[in-house]
Structure formats: C-alpha cells, structure tokens
Amino acid sequence: MHNVALPQALYTAEAVRELDRLAIEALGVPGAVLMQRAGRALFAALLARWPSPSRITVYCGTGNNGGDGYVVAQLAVDHGLRVQVVQLGDADRIGGDARLARESALAAGVDVRAFAGHPPPVDGVVVDALLGTGARGEPRGEYGEAIALINASGLPVVAADIPSGLCSDTGRVLGQAVRAALTVTFVGLKQGLVTAQGPAVCGELVFANLGLPESLGAEVAATALRLDGDALRRRWLPPRPATSHKGHWGHVLVVGGERGMAGAAVLAATAAARVGTGLVSCATRPEHVPALVARVPEVMAHGVDHGNGLAPLLARASVVVVGPGLGREPWAQQLLFQALKSGLPAVVDADALNLLSERPRWLGAPPANWIITPHPGEAARLLGCSTAAIEADRYGAARQLAQRWGARVVLKGAGTVVATEDGLFVGDYGNPGMASGGMGDVLSGVLGGLLAQGLSPATAVCLGVCLHGWAADRAARAGGQRGLLAEDLMSELRSLVNP
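Predicted structure:
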C-alpha cells in the first residue's frame, strides 16, 4: 500500500553514497554526526512501534551499518532498557565513524558479545545492523547464519537502512535476507526497497533524511520516482465542462473474450467505462454477446467471427484494448493483427503479448501511442529471457522492454515499474489481495479509458497504475485482502476519478 510519508525520489546505492559525500564535504556535516542521527532515528522508530521492549538485541557488522547499531545500543542503555550487541566479523576491522560509535557504546556500558556461540534471542526486538547498501553477493559464513537465526527467532526485527541480504538497487534477495517488520532508511530512498522482494522483507518503511536539506537531493539525479496518484488525478482529471457529451470522452474498443474467457473482456470494458470513457465497445465471440449485454448494458457488444469483422469497429474507435481473454488460437491471431494494423492508440495485454512475442513481425513499425502491460512471465517472453532474470532487475527489464518494443511499459508485480519517455516510475499502490484472476484485465480497461479521454500514453500509464492499485487498497480496507475480486475495484475506480 502507498505510503504518503515517503519521498518520491528513488536512488541507487551509489547515488546515496554521493549524497552522503555531499552532506559531509559540501554541507560540513561530519560523518559521525550523520551516524548519530541515523541511530537516533532508528531508535525513535523502534520505540514508536514497540514502546516497552523487554530486550533489544542488536546484530552489528563491521561497517557503518554496524556503527548505526552501536548508536542504538547506547541509546537503549541511556533509556534504561536491556540491550545486547552481537558482533559479527573481526571487531579490529571496524574503523572510522563506526569505531567511534563502538567505543562510545562500550564506554557507556553496552554489553557486546561475539556471534560465535551466542544463543539466539528469545524475547524483545531485534535490530539488524549487519550489512548495508555496500554488501555484494549472498551473505555467507556467520552473516548467513545470523540472518537465518534472526528469521527463525520469530521476533520483530528493525532493519537499519536496508534489510541485510536485500539488494538496494534491484530489490532482489541475495540468497537470503532478514525479514524485517520495520525498516528505517536514511538520506535517500533506495530504489530496491519498493519493488520486487523489497516490500516483502522491509515491512513498514520509514524514511529519515537525518536533518539534511531537501535541496541536497537536487544535486544527485534520482534514477526513478514513486508515483503520487492523488497529485496526478487532480492535475489530469479536472471537473468536466457543463457542455460535455459522450463524444468528448473517447471510444474504447476492447478486443478479447475467447471461449471460456468472456469475463476478461467484460472486466476490461467495465473498467474503461468506470473511469469515464464516453463510449465502450467490445468485440468478442458471438456466443458471448447476450451475456455481455446482460452484464453491462452500457457496453456495445459485437460478435466477431474473424479478423475482417473488426475493421468497421476499429474505424469508429479512438483507442483499442487488445488481449483480455484473447487466447492464442487463429481467431485471436487475426484480431490482434487487425488491431495493430489499425494504428490506433493501443493497450496490449495478456495473450496479445504472448502472440506478439512469437510473431513480432506483426507489429511492423510500432504504433506511435501504445502501451504494453506484461507480468514478469510475459515480459520474459518479450525479451527472450527467464522470468527470474526479469525479477532480478525489474528496473532494467522495464527500460529494456521500452527500448526494444518502442512502447510505454507497465511491468506488473509488487512495486509495479513503469517505463516511459520521461523515465522510470514505481507505483507502490496495491496489496496481495490482487493475486486473483481478472485484475490485469481491469488495469487494461483503466489505461484504455484514460487514453480515450485525451491523456498522453505516458500520463495514462502513470495515473492508471495508481488508480488500479489504489482502488484495490480501498476495497481491501473495506472487506479484507482474501477474496478480493476484480469487480470489487469498479466502484472504487469511479470514486477515485472524481477527486
């Protein structure tokens, strides 16, 4: 679910290190002061979530992440709390600001034990200060053992900056990672925290800028931006003029609904209507027309036996959405070919993407205004790689899809990644309840409906991704995540497009 308190700018680990350098060299904030501020922010967030922990066990590595942990431990002693530091690695290798933090904690009476032979924690809260953003590769040796032990303890975990074992640039788990209940991240929001496995292992995400001015972020380019759905809808969905009529708001043609999959086309068509499209048509198997008309009488349903039957419908439409329930039989192939040949602004999803990956020559010159919405498996087929490769670098995959196919891309999943001519964006709306059939069909309809109303493809994908996930979050709050159905989003979508 979207966290309005987090900043929009997302950074790589290298960029955050540059922000650190600028804070120290250009602003004159000593590294030791930044470490103290980080420790205080983490300790404050810990107490806000667990006001009276029976014990705090801090696992420290030998880098600056461990230094943050020592600051937390000293603060815990100052507050009269029971605290234990478990040191991994050779303490003699700790240097710089982290060594100062360790020495200060020892002088304050913090109990520090080596990891070897130390019993696992059995109560209280655990602080993960093992590995920071500079870690490379799978945690091995005692670091791997410590991560497994922390996870097996079942205790709540607070991660300093990033859960150990998570790649801060991609959100990929490097073999194994700490599963935190709370992550407090510093200076710049790392892009891996909000996509792929990041949300699953971070828990609640809190950002602390450590008292640095917001202008510092302007000195280093963000690599991606979190989307702000509320700002987007207020800008791009203003009140309609009193003289509006249906012809002003576009005509979406949904193409899909093979035998046994009529519901997908119905969902896409309904979603297009609910976000404000003036007219919606649906080209589907002839036997589905009565059910479609009964279900959504506002949608103009047309039975189509072959691709040639699509031409007059395309001639009247302003946008085509092709793929929901399309299948991969010859009927589907004919309809997809005709839809792509039309040159209309298009949203291409589901089996249309699979067919396209098998027959890219059908595309010819890419349409000027088209959007593709693959899930990781479909993205892998479009790029000729494995699903694991897509999930290993979702940012890179979205960028590559946009370049190879000349499209605006919505790479679906936890932390949906959007690639447009304006850059990379993350839609961190949505929840696990969306893991049910038909959700992607709703998204296709939403995107088609926004395109039909005159939004550019780049704007439509950014706003559409937000509306889709936001509607699901609202529906989940009302009735829970389990059992959430795609049709539950419809009334929420209508509400959201009327800010």
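Summary: The mean pLDDT is 95.
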